[in-house]
């Protein structure tokens, strides 16, 4: 237990590992796989409907005025990361399997995560309203930008769907339920807020369901037979390197642009994080066949790496703020 605390391995990460193990030992096949695919589509739509119902209109208005901060975060998410992905891709192709290398590119094209970006910004003493708006805007824009960026980065690799078709499917499956939930917020917002703690498990359950379905298909197609252990370790190394370089560059950029400390914190956490909750459903729409499991694996690994790293960085920011706020002794 002490070791888990030191490594900051949360319960959800253990559930992800358990889901991958279950899919490896007992993958869903045949007609049952088709049923599971339909169930995951419904679960994803419900997930984004609830996300829309949770997003406060006041939070949107409060954060929208800080346009320099939002443009900086969007540039980090959708420009800096794809450029980093292009830089590491030639090396990744040699060290990883084709599916894992494509998954790294997909990781770099994803939008920012919402909940943990806000949580870490708050923990570090940053600009929380701006983080709410920036992370939410990143998720919504990712519906359009992620398929387009992946087309530029990867072309037709990995049986990727036509970008316009992918955008339409993502709009239908993610954005339409999100907007519907937000429009119904006056009616159901209070109910959703009162059950926020319980609904967190519906978020996680949906991700686990999609991961199980994706990895089942990948295992049936021979994922583990074609994925050496060194390639898996390589993904961990690439994920850690991407996050480390990105956070260093984003911090430097925020300071060079003269942002206040609270804004810098929001930029660092919103600009460096990638969304597992949005990425897995997007991958399901954008990629076909057994390649899906290998493609989402780098996203899952990056998810844990960013949680560990951002927890440490947030605590350092918080300690720095405490020292700054402390009264000076006479």
Task: Walk me through what this model shows.
There is one protein chain. The protein has 330 residues and is an all-alpha fold. It has helices at 2-7, 11-25, 30-54, 57-64, 67-95, 98-109, 115-124, 128-154, 163-183, 185-194, 196-220, 229-256, 261-272, 276-286, 291-325. It is 83% helix and 0% strand. The model is unreliable at 326-330 (pLDDT under 50).
Please summarize what this structure is:
This is Bile acid:sodium symporter. With 330 residues, the chain is an all-alpha fold. It has helices at residues 2-7, 11-25, 30-54, 57-64, 67-95, 98-109, 115-124, 128-154, 163-183, 185-194, 196-220, 229-256, 261-272, 276-286, 291-325.
Element layout with pairings:
Elements: H1 2-7, H2 11-25, H3 30-54, H4 57-64, H5 67-95, H6 98-109, H7 115-124, H8 128-154, H9 163-183, H10 185-194, H11 196-220, H12 229-256, H13 261-272, H14 276-286, H15 291-325
Helix pairs in contact: 2-11, 3-9, 3-10, 3-11, 4-8, 5-6, 5-8, 5-12, 5-13, 6-8, 6-15, 7-8, 7-13, 7-15, 8-9, 8-13, 9-14, 11-14, 11-15, 12-13, 12-15, 14-15
How widely separated are the two ends? 45 Å
| Count of alpha and pi helical runs | 15
Overall pLDDT metric: 81
Record field, number of beta strands: 0
What is the CATH topology assignment? Answer: Na+/H+ antiporter like fold
What is the count of distinct domains? 1
Radius of gyration: 20 Å
Q: What is the percentage of strand-forming residues? A: under 5%
- Share in helix: over 70%
Low-confidence stretches: 326-330
What is the CATH first-level class name? Mainly Alpha
Main sheet characteristics? none
Shape: globular
The succession of helices and strands, N to C, reads: HHHHHHHHHHHHHHH
> What would you call the structural class?
mainly alpha
So, CATH architecture?
Answer: Up-down Bundle
